[in-house]
Design brief:
single chain, 81 residues, alpha+beta, Glutaredoxin, 3 helices, binds FE2/S2 (inorganic) cluster
């Protein structure tokens, strides 16, 4: 099981964490990965500067935005699933 940890702290929330979370869930369902990929929320990951912070199995993902999440999902998550 791959675990995506998405920051829902205040800074990331202001930068669209809610929309990013919805897009991740949509990607997981679209690619039939509900048994392989789990999305978890976390508070501040200490990387609040820009975009929404997230990790994949503890490794930092690029900063996420509602507009880049599909590309990041395909590049970093889909190939691991
Ligand atoms: S609030 Fe998200 S990394 Fe700090």
């Amino acid at each position: 099981m791959l675990v995506i940890t998405l920051c829902v702290g205040s800074s990331c929330y202001m930068r669209g964490a809610h929309q990013v979370a919805e897009a991740i869930e949509r990607n997981i369902e679209h690619h039939g990965l509900t048994a392989k990929v789990e999305l978890q929320g976390a508070f501040c990951l200490g990387r609040c500067l820009d975009g929404v912070a997230a990790c994949l199995d503890g490794q930092p993902l690029p900063r996420l935005t509602p507009t880049n999440i599909d590309e990041v999902f395909a590049r970093y998550i889909l190939k691991e699933a």
